[in-house]
Amino acid sequence: HEVVILLQHSIDKNISIETDLQAENSCISGDPSQVQNALLNLALNARDAMPEGGSIVFESVEVTIEKDHSICNMFEVTPGFFINIRVRDTGCGMDTEALKHLFEPFFTTKLPGKGTGLGLAAVYGTVKSHHGGIAVNSMPGKGTQFDLYFPLDSTVMRRLNPKPKRFVPPPRNASILIVDDEDLVREMAVESLTNGGYSISAYRNGDEALAAYKEKFPSIDLVIIDLILPGLSGLELLSELKKINKSIKVLIASGCISQADPTSYPEGVDAVLQKPFRVTDLIQKVAEVLHAG
Q: The pTM is what?
């Protein structure tokens, strides 16, 4: 908020500053002045890329990051709960060659005398020192988008004990079976859905989930499956569950499939929730699937 207020009072009037701050928890461990300076650097770079005017948008959401997330491959990031701060602009954008050198000290796309090339290197250093990650998307003439990921302070989160938005559950206390091998994701889903009024059983692999479903499938209203699992894969588990109950309701929660493309859904799947996802998105999607039938 401080960064936005500062920019609104100092940046050219032909550039609009917009916000969409959806993250309910934004507590991170670290130096707030460094984070503010990183955001200011990104905003000033965006300003310089829009000499004729345009818009800068700040967005924030809470996300879960798993070990197979691309950020984990590029940075030493521990999977868990993160705040994703996005800064995007409608400026001139960058080509692939510029993107390759973007965070190198003294590299700049600006005219001589217009920049030192240290701003983005400082942003990169701030993100790394806070055990986070950064991703960039840009195309010439299409603007630039920076996604900064900072791990949320787990101590503060536990003290705040945040409750997800409560949605109206189905007529009776619905029972949900969850299978996900990522402990943090599974525990987050269990806590969120329990707070949402559901009865939850959770397992870390497909074999355990299949055995549990065989035992109590008449009372299970919905199964939430990750596609990548030890033992039985998510698709193999889905096939076995369908043999037991052809009308089973299934929600796939995975980073390997796009919820925006229903034609890519495996047969027999009611809905897809793409990882990383927010707690509110999970509860909303569960409610939609259960109410649909």
A: 0.53
